UniProtKB/TrEMBL annotation:
Keywords: Aminopeptidase, Hydrolase, Metal-binding, Metalloprotease, Protease, Zinc. Its cofactor is Zn(2+). This is Aminopeptidase N. Residues 450-554 form the Peptidase M1 alanyl aminopeptidase Ig-like fold domain. It comes from Marinobacter oulmenensis. Belongs to the peptidase M1 family. Residues 559-879 form the Peptidase M1 alanyl aminopeptidase C-terminal domain. InterPro entries: Aminopeptidase_N-like_N (IPR045357), Aminopeptidase_N-like_N_sf (IPR042097), PepN_Ig-like_sf (IPR038438), Peptidase_M1 (IPR001930), Peptidase_M1_dom (IPR014782), Peptidase_M1_pepN (IPR012779), Peptidase_M1_pepN_C (IPR024601), Peptidase_M1_pepN_C_sf (IPR037144). Residues 23-192 form the Aminopeptidase N-like N-terminal domain.
Length: 879
């Protein structure tokens, strides 16, 4: 454990590595009480480095060093130094081999970084800095080497031995042991190294690439999961085809493997040729996975596969460049998902996540640009900003260049940098070089943190027929950054006439072929645009398709929002108008007595939606979701959660009571039947009937109760079964809730993914997830502190999704969270640091809440020997 204060690492201090590694030869001896790792590195002085002889410095963490060899000769202990996580060899020649033998204890590795054990199997997670927990190595992504890996283990306990690349040798050893040797022909940084050893079943398939090469596809899972692989395998094949067609990227090895692991800190990992997945992000069957889970699996399988080019063939120079691979790859997987399903719905889901959670991050104490300038612990920077905002920035480039030029830019980037470790600027440069589009000002998106705010005003000159739109942009201060420069913001918009028609957008009086949608380039603090030839003041439809990750303020009247909700030709903005209207209505009720009137037109609008069978039902299903409490908190200045919760509940109850018959009709109309399908239409239909059910149970409707109970019993898929369970859990029908929860657990108790759903349905419920109930979940035999998914499904879901319970005015929710963070900090600092997130937002809340949140943070800060991960988050939040 660390005793001194963690260091800050700066991008400005980047220097090239003093030594390069050309080849890595690894031999793992795996045993029950530990593992011995023999590593032989072929090293040479970096010609780009300093002229002066440098000591060789290797990174290491939690290693027991057994021996060091230089060019085959064992070094005496005074020839090297081992301290502060480093192995330093002072005198080394220009080129040499270094042998290092270390002993590690995977069975005691609870941090789940490096080599560890999960349900009896050995597996690895090396990104970002886990490889140093395996052996001493220059653990930085700009050192790229060819790896050869020999794994030795007991044959009966670990029949399957996997690593990156191709198997080149295998055989029997003494004492019932065996070995397999793998060779990866592609040079890679050590964060892409992987090893798996276990008793796993293999599922095989194959894929023929565009150039006719046959690729062996394999999934490895525990025997009990053998029937849950098909969907991921099919997703993989769709992703491989799509990447060829849309990005011209062909797979490069002869084998591609996916392994499912139950204990995993993140979603999945793109190790070269051997992707390792959190079980919950890859295993699925109709009976156990919801529609949302299927879609998530498809997206993550694609994401990790796409990394083979955007991440592995071209990787990051340093961890400040993380968004180079993550932002680009999220953009790629989002476009894939748009092509596989409903593009508008996918866009709505991504914008919702961004506006709810990334905007909050950008407005909080951990705000950072998509290319941060400094960090203490890189694991804390696998954020919504790096991933989702990073993807939005790539999407803006895509829209600025257009599809054809963007593809040329992407081809140039891959061709120019294949086999290299590069920077986000190299990416932007390739886009610029291929297209000729000036991205000079645009680069500020990489440097400046904070969400730009656009304040839009307008006036109409009736005599001249000119509509003038004025847009002001402001970027709020963030920690360490003030007085920001205006950014280049692509601002897509349309104008609607009184009859709902799209008006021609003439930026000058003589515009002959006016478009009805334009993308304006915002570059100045204030800019005005004049639209000519209009006979009436139009209704503006702004930031269509969410064309930039910004906030837009425009004083739409409720009348105008209702109008856009039913007339905007941009589906995204129809949805957005509905959200804005609902937000406005809920906000106006916060703190008001229950006698305050609820906007009557809201009921009409939702009735219209519920009965609108002409509109894309996938869009209708999204439009019926009221803005979440988390989003309402994000929008408020000084949030009073119980008051927000109460106002939102009032609106929900009001709508459900007024629309009861329409909800029942909607439910009937969407009564499934037929085979379970994952088409956008079928998904929308399930979403609609489950929303109707949820609303009916929200008002304890008796007919709704019957429907929920029978749906729960008869459902042939997890979406409907969980939809019914969730509705019952959130109703006032206590007996039905208990009966359904018990039945559900009994049926699925041996399936960890479903048990996680069962935990989270309760932890997220303001009816079933009050603190005493949360404590009971933690004591449940299925709960396991060592399993990150379980911790997330109870603790993180409680703090992040059960807002009224977490923000109990007595502060008990905050103290509870602080206690769990302190408990986890010693065993799994990455997960502990993530759990802190809700508390970091303390300044957002009304003082009585905020002060108690701050006190809880101080309680974490004062723990002895805090991990670097939690230290960084807590200290920055209190600064
Ligand atoms: N590169 C992985 C992905 O996005 C995530 C790895 C995260 N690891 C971590 N230690 N934070 O696909
Ligand atoms: Zn990724």
């Amino acid at each position: 454990m660390r005793t001194n204060q963690p260091q800050t690492i700066y991008l400005s201090e980047y220097t090239v590595p003093a030594y390069l590694v050309d080849h890595v030869d690894l031999r793992f001896e795996l045993f029950e009480d530990g593992a011995r790792v023999h590593s032989t590195l072929t090293i040479r002085r970096n010609p780009q480095g300093s002229e002066l002889a440098q000591p060789l410095v290797l990174d290491g963490d939690s290693l027991t060093l057994e021996a060091v060899h230089l060019n085959g000769d064992e070094l005496a202990p005074d020839a090297y130094e081992e301290h502060d996580g480093q192995l330093v060899v002072a005198n080394v020649p220009e080129a040499f081999t270094l042998g290092v033998v270390t002993w590690i204890e995977p069975q005691n590795n609870t941090r789940l970084e490096g080599l560890y054990k999960s349900s009896g199997m050995f597996c690895t997670q090396c990104e970002a800095e886990g490889f140093r927990c395996i052996t001493y190595y220059p653990d930085r992504p700009d050192v790229m080497a060819r790896f050869r890996t020999r794994i030795e283990a007991d044959r009966s306990a670990y029949p399957v031995l996997l690593s990156n690349g191709n198997p080149v040798e295998q055989g029997a050893l003494e004492d019932g042991r065996h070995f397999v040797t793998w060779e990866d022909p592609f040079p890679k940084p050590c964060y892409l190294f992987a090893l798996v050893a276990g008793d796993l079943v293999e599922k095989r398939d194959s894929f023929t690439t565009v150039s006719g090469r046959n690729i062996d596809l394999r999934m490895y899972v525990e025997p009990r999961n053998a029937e849950k692989c098909d969907f991921a395998m099919d997703s993989l094949k769709r992703a491989m085809r799509w990447d060829e067609e849309v990005f011209g990227r062909e797979y490069d090895l002869d084998i591609f493997m996916i392994v499912a692991v139950d204990d995993f800190n993140m979603g999945a990992m793109e190790n070269k040729g051997l992707n390792i997945f959190n079980s919950s992000c890859v295993l699925a069957s109709q009976d156990t996975a919801t529609d949302a889970a299927f879609q998530r699996i498809e997206a993550i399988v694609a994401h990790e596969y796409f990394h083979n080019w955007s991440g592995n063939r071209v990787t990051c120079r340093d961890w400040f460049q993380l968004s180079l691979k993550e932002g680009f790859t999220v953009f790629r997987d989002a476009r894939f998902s748009e092509d596989m399903g409903s593009p508008t719905v996918k866009r709505i889901e991504d914008a919702t996540l961004l506006r709810t959670a990334q905007f909050a991050e950008d407005a909080g104490p951990m705000a950072h640009p998509i290319r941060p300038a400094s960090y203490m612990e890189i694991s804390n920077f696998y954020t919504l900003t790096i991933y989702e905002k990073g993807a939005e920035v790539v999407r803006m480039i895509y829209n600025l260049l257009g599809p054809a030029a963007f593809r040329e830019g992407s081809d140039l980037y891959f061709q120019r940098h294949d086999g290299q470790a590069v920077t986000t600027d190299d990416f932007v440069q390739a886009m610029e070089d291929a297209s000729g589009v000036d991205l000079g000002q645009f680069r500020l998106w990489y440097e400046q943190a904070g969400t730009p705010v656009l304040t839009v005003s307008d006036d109409f000159d009736e005599a001249r027929g000119i509509y003038r739109l004025t847009v002001e942009q402001a970027i709020p201060d963030t920690p360490g950054q003030t007085d920001k420069k205006p950014q280049h913001i692509p601002f897509a918009l349309g104008l609607l006439g009184a009859g709902g028609e799209s008006l021609p957008l003439r930026l000058s009086a003589d515009d002959e072929a006016p478009q009805t949608e334009r993308v304006l380039d915002l570059r100045e603090p204030t800019q005005s645009f004049e639209f000519h030839g209009l006979s009436e003041k139009p209704v503006p439809s702004l930031l269509r398709h969410f064309s930039a990750p910004v906030r837009v303020n425009y004083p739409w009247t409720r009348e105008q929002l209702l109008f856009l909700m039913s007339h905007d030709p941009d589906g995204f903005n129809r949805w957005d108008a509905g959200q804005r209207l609902a937000v406005d209505v809920i906000q106006s009720l916060i703190g008001q007595p229950d006698s305050a009137e609820i906007e009557p037109r809201l009921v009409d609008a939702y009735r219209h939606l519920l009965n609108d069978t002409d509109l894309d039902q996938a869009l209708v299903a999204k439009m019926l979701q009221l803005p979440s409490e988390a989003y309402l908190v994000e929008l408020s200045e000084s949030a009073d959660v119980p008051a927000i919760h109460h106002a939102r509940e009032r609106v929900l109850n009001h709508l459900a009571v007024a629309l009861r018959d329409d909800l029942l009709a909607c439910y009937e109309r969407n009564q499934g039947g037929g085979d379970y399908q994952l088409t956008p239409t079928a998904i929308a239909s399930r979403s609609l009937r489950n929303t109707a059910l949820a609303w009916l149970l929200h008002i304890d409707d008796e007919r709704g109760r019957e429907l929920a109970n029978s749906q729960f019993e008869q459902a042939d898929n997890m979406t409907d079964r969980l939809g019914a369970l969730r509705a019952l859990v959130n109703s006032g029908f206590d007996e039905d809730r208990t009966r359904a929860l018990d039945a559900f657990y009994e049926r699925f108790s041996d399936d960890p993914q479903v048990v996680e759903l069962w935990f989270s349905v309760q932890a997220s419920s303001s009816k079933a997830g009050q603190l005493p109930q949360i404590h009971r979940l933690l004591e449940h035999p299925a709960f396991d502190w060592k399993n990150p998914n379980k911790v997330r499904s109870v603790v993180a879901v409680f703090a992040g999704q059960n807002l009224p319970a977490f923000h109990n005015p007595d502060g008990s929710g905050y103290n509870f969270l602080a206690e769990q963070v302190r408990r986890l900090d010693d065993s799994n600092p990455q997960i502990a640091a993530r759990l802190v997130t809700p508390l970091t937002r303390w300044r957002k809340f009304a003082p009585t809440y905020g002060q108690q949140m701050k006190a809880a943070l101080e309680g974490i800060r004062d723990k002895q020997s805090l991990s670097r991960d939690v230290y960084e988050v807590v200290h920055k939040s209190l600064a």
